[in-house]
Amino acid sequence: MTTSTLTGARVTYTRAPLYSWWVLLVSLLCFMCCFIGLNTVAVFGTVIQDDWGINATQLSLLTTASMLTFCVVPVFAGKWAARIGVKKIVVIGLLCNAVSALLIPVVGESYTGMLVLRLLLGCCGGVMNASLATHASLWFPKNRRGFATGLLMGFLGVGFSITSFAGPLLTDSGMSWEIASMWLTVVPSVACGALFVLTVKDFHKAHPGVPSMDALVAEPVGLRRPHSTRFDALPKPGSLAEALRSSRVWWSSLYGAGTAITLYGLSYALPLFLEQDRGMTLLEASAIIGVTFMFKLVAAPVGGLMSDRLFRGERFQTNMIGAGLAGVMVVALPGIPASTLGIYLCMMFLAASLYGGTYWAWAAELSQPQANYQTSGLIVTVSNVGAVLAAPMLGLIIDATGSATYAMVTIGVLGLLSVECARRSRL
Questions:
Q1: Would you call 45 helix, strand, or coil by DSSP?
Q2: What pLDDT, in 10s, does the model give residues 9-58?
Q3: pTM for this structure?
Q4: Among candidate residues 9, 48, 21, 301, the one with its CA nearest the CA of residue 137
């Protein structure tokens, strides 16, 4: 049971209070709202193509439009969050989500109008990326932060699953895809936004002058699991300008970009590799890749637990292990026999996703409290550059070589280079 005492004017807990887990849960629900909206084009893709008479390239641009603002907005949203507080910035993000969905029936069959709405929808993801998860991480001490934020990262994908499950049910009931998209996005955005505003406290306002829950938790002597302090004395940026000059922030950001290339690159190139280079049918490739979802789901909490307990709150070792294992396994993938390919891919995706248990802890541990959101925005923006570049870069390699095998090797080599970025982050 969590107990607390009053020391001077400050409450000291024996462990992270239950309220911290409530903050995490509500933050997860708000974050998922964004991914529900983002996935509507993928779920209703064939219907949109039939209704509007557009080709696959035009359809893909609707997703690209969202990714554009998803990538660019975080660096600005982090700065705004530091000024106006996390509650207001989350409300702004969810408003972008809801308004973009409400206007879908209004734009009718205007492809240009839909592109603009998808840009607005991506702003929601950019805002959430820069502020929401970093704020949730502050509610946990260092030796619990990785596991907690790993749960957040691991279960974000459920948002995509909700759209995939509920979308066809709504259209089968007689709804148009426009109305189904609207209801799927607006209802959870409004409900979760209200829940966040009414029940979640801004950490820095609830505990003025306290950098994070580390300063408020003092475990009983016999139960203490001391966390590492060897990087605590290193300089920490206190503003976006200082974050831009911080080598640790940049090495962490480059590592984030490398892992994004690995994961987004695999989502693009792996199906092509399995179908074209390994001779699988689309159904077989889809089935074997689908099995990896559960392993990606558990990898982030496992990675967080590793960094919390095994490495006493240090993150770089887990990041190195994940990138190194994934890099080696991707490079070796062309030589793996078909009989063991399924389990091999599951282990490969688990390794590649371990970083998710440390990712949302980086900003809180690399920067001073007043710069947490700006640092998070910078890291996310650089990471997202890797996500955006992955498919075009690998597509060029596949076109030039006529084989997806070289694209897979490129992913693996970049993953191995990320190991050095993790080491230099001193995180």
A1: helix
A2: 456 777 788 899 999 999 989 988 888 887 788 778 778 888 888 776 77
A3: 0.82
A4: 21
Same fold, 15-205 and 240-425: yes
Angle at 17 between CA 11 and CA 22, to 5 degrees: 130
Place of tokens 């990471």: 383
Write out pLDDT tens, residues 150-162.
888 877 767 667 7
Give residue for tokens 């076109």.
Answer: 399
CATH number of the 15-205 domain: 1.20.1250.20
Domain boundaries, the chain: 15-205, 240-425
Q: Does residue 16 come out as left (phi exceeding 0), alpha (psi in the -120 to 50 range) or beta?
A: beta
Taking CA atoms, 223 is separated from 15, 28, 218, 219, 396, in Å, by: 10, 29, 10, 6, 55
**C-alpha closest to that of 372 among 67, 21, 137, 93:** 137
Quote the tokens at residue 48.
Answer: 């949109």
What CATH number is given for 240-425 in this structure? 1.20.1250.20
Q: Quick one: tokens of 342?
A: 């399924």
In the block, which residue shows the tokens 């409530």?
A: 22
Query: Residue 139 is encoded by which pair of tokens?
Result: 């509610």
Tell me which residue has tokens 């699988």.
280
Consecutive H or E run containing 367: none
* Class of residue 323 by CB neighbours under 10 A (exposed 0-12, middle 13-18, buried 19+): buried
